[in-house]
Design brief:
Blueprint (H helix, E strand, L loop, with lengths): L1 E3 L7 H13 L4 E10 L10 E9 L3 E9 L5 E6 L12 E8 L5 E8 L6 H15 L6 E6 L5 H13 L3 E2 L10 E2 L2 E2 L1 E6 L1 E8 L11 E7 L7
Parallel strand pairs: 1-2, 7-8
Antiparallel strand pairs: 2-4, 3-4, 5-6, 6-7, 8-12, 9-12, 10-11, 13-14
Helix pairs in contact: 2-3
Length: about 230
């Protein structure tokens, strides 16, 4: 499940809806953007392990992207954009985690909140830097999140990024539920060396300014048939 939750995750309305949601849509991975993470609470997601890449810190909270999973982490790396967003003076963050699959392959999960208030040139440079990091990832990979690709030229830049890494884009059912600006969807799931079974955007009745995308995959075994 991929979801920009707009810092709503500590509100009772969000928590109630989320509990219902994951019962209906069981998840091995949750990729959240714009998480508000309390420093003084030991656990925020029962039955999940999680890692976070923060881009803002206050006295009581961290903010950023969070990946939660029921599958053990092998390695975790966090990254900040090289540029700050104009007007907000903040970076955006990315989290890369690796998880061992039953056949021994390493599954790469990349949780991205794309940079927003910068020039097109700045947007492209950040994608180039992400691409350079991801080129070292071999095997199955999921790259997902809020990419802030709200112009035609940003869409073209994201398509160039996608093709350079050999990624396929998930075709989402109920696409009208995906967050859009200027009729451009912002949230995407890209993948490689996996079989997409389904992907669906879910209407959550406006508890965030984005809706989640739920996708299921099957693993393409790396072992030759006997």
């Amino acid at each position: 499940m991929v979801w920009n939750i707009h810092k709503e995750n500590l509100h009772p309305q969000f928590l109630d809806r989320f509990e219902i949601l994951i019962q209906e849509y069981p998840c091995d991975f949750l990729l959240f953007q714009e998480v508000k993470f309390p420093k003084k609470i030991a656990s925020v997601l029962d039955s999940f392990s999680y890692a976070m890449a923060s881009n803002i810190e206050t006295f009581q909270h961290l903010y950023g992207v969070l990946t939660a999973t029921k599958i053990a982490f092998t390695t975790i790396s966090s990254h900040l954009t090289h540029r700050r967003e104009v007007g907000l003076i903040t970076y955006k963050s990315m989290l890369i985690t690796h998880h061992e699959l039953p056949d021994g392959q390493a599954l790469n999960i990349v949780n991205i909140h794309g940079i927003n208030f910068v020039s097109l040139k700045g947007f492209i440079k950040e994608l180039e830097k992400i691409k350079a990091v991801l080129h070292s990832c071999s095997g199955p990979i999921i790259v997902a999140g809020d990419f802030n690709n709200w112009t035609k030229k940003r869409i073209m830049a994201l398509e160039t990024f996608q093709h350079a890494l050999g990624l396929e884009k998930a075709d989402v059912q109920e696409p009208h539920h995906v967050k859009q600006i200027f009729a451009k969807p912002l949230d995407h799931i890209f993948y490689r060396d996996l079989q997409l079974l389904k992907a669906k955007a879910i209407d959550t009745k406006k508890i965030s300014d984005h809706n989640p995308i739920y996708a299921t995959f099957s693993v393409i075994s790396s072992k030759p048939e006997s």
